Amino acid sequence: MRKIVVLGSGFAGYHAARCLEDALLSRKRVQLTLVSDQSSFVFSPLLYNVASDELDPGHITTPLDEAFDASTEVLIARVEELDLKGRRLITDRGEVPFDYLILAPGTSRDDEAFEGADQAQTPDSVRRAVDIRDRLAGLFEFGDQDPWTFAIVGASTDGVEWCAELASALADVRAKHPDTPPPSAITLIEARDRVLADHSEAMSEIATRYLTHLGVDVRTGRRVLQLEHGELLLDDGERIEATHIYHLAGRRGHPWVTRSGLPLDELGRVEVEDNLKVRGYHRIYAVGDVAQMQVSSPRNAQVAMQAGRHAAQNLLADLVGRATLPFRYEDRGDFVTLGRANAALDLLGRAFEGRAAWLAYRLYFTALMPRPFQKALLLMDWIAMRAARPDWEARPPALPAGEPEDER
């Protein structure tokens, strides 16, 4: 019996496994196994909405044992080693042999980005997002009157979206209780010369302008060297004190990936050929954040889904002796959410912002949810949020490009 293993249940792994299951249900001599250290598929782009208490965590998770047919083995286990010679995964629940393997374990927070990075918070899992939500809820409801100070390290998509969500949450608290909250400050720090450096300059300009409009102090071209005792040391000697520090300055491959012997880039990501096979290895594919692909594409859910399905299709072709095909990313628009009332959208080379972009972002992600009742729950959450904000239309929109603030 041929044994196919998919490692990881993020966007890439989940959709690869679903594609394989649909194709293999009628085959009795092939065993499909999904290995994950999470018991649910998590719609990770919306973790920031969970951390800010905008969404319920149960509305963005799908239990794996409910998502797959009984013929697919789902093993909840943590990988400790990848034995390439023995063609097996070594996990905390035993060994998992494979004939074909799709690697989609994602990446881990880069704790080497600066000294003390492991002390910062990161809303990159349901558990961590809920922990941040609870801390913020306690601060907003019972916090003392000292200034609320926040610092976010990293202004890629993750950093910008969390910064905007946090600023929106603070604005909502202040709107509901204008006399209660003490002064607050949010600082966003990015080592590169602009925020959203992996996106178009127009998207970067929109994000910078709107974050500034929300009161965020945006620092670009500044690298964090150290975090110690609630204080960030920058490369120019400046020190920034903050009571809440979030690290979203980069991801790297898991330690067991680094030890595996697979070809890696400087961040521990697996190098793959254009057909998504690991370079130099037969019957092993890598997709999602763990893969360093030859094709140029952003790192988002849209790419991970497409790559996961393509790897599954190439594996199926490999299984029956057909030729594999190179991966080609189909750009369906670039979205970045900017808090609870705005978003930026780059479509066909043209950037848009505002509530129309926000609505397109929400509808797009609603359509991507795996199950119909989750789509309904998500829409109900956002409709309820809209109904609870009668001041929506009264909130000032983002400044048009090039318009000075004092002329508004």
What would you say this structure looks like, in words?
This protein is an alpha/beta fold and 408 residues long. The chain folds into two domains: 2-108 and 251-319, FAD/NAD(P)-binding domain (3-Layer(bba) Sandwich); 109-249, FAD/NAD(P)-binding domain. It contains ten helices and 24 strands. It is globular. It starts with a strand and ends in a 21-residue tail after the last helix. Its cofactor is FAD.
Q: Which properties best describe this structure?
A:
408 residues, FAD/NAD(P)-binding domain, disordered C terminus, FAD/NAD-binding_dom, NADH-Q_oxidoreductase, five-stranded parallel sheet, FAD/NAD-bd_sf, 10 helices, FAD, 31% helix, 24 strands, NAD(P)H dehydrogenase (quinone) activity, alpha/beta
* Overall mean confidence score, pLDDT: 87
Helix-strand makeup class: alpha/beta
Strand content: 15-25%
Strand order of the largest sheet: 5-2-1-9-20
Largest sheet: 5 strands, parallel
Under CATH, the topology of the largest domain is which?
A: FAD/NAD(P)-binding domain
CATH architecture of the largest domain: 3-Layer(bba) Sandwich
Number of domains: 2
Radius of gyration: 22 Å
What's the name of the CATH homologous superfamily of the largest domain? FAD/NAD(P)-binding domain
Amino-to-carboxy terminus distance: 70 Å
Fraction of residues in H or I helices: 25-40%
Number of separate helices: 10
Cofactor: FAD
GO molecular function: NAD(P)H dehydrogenase (quinone) activity
Protein name: FAD/NAD(P)-binding domain-containing protein
GO biological process, one term: aerobic electron transport chain
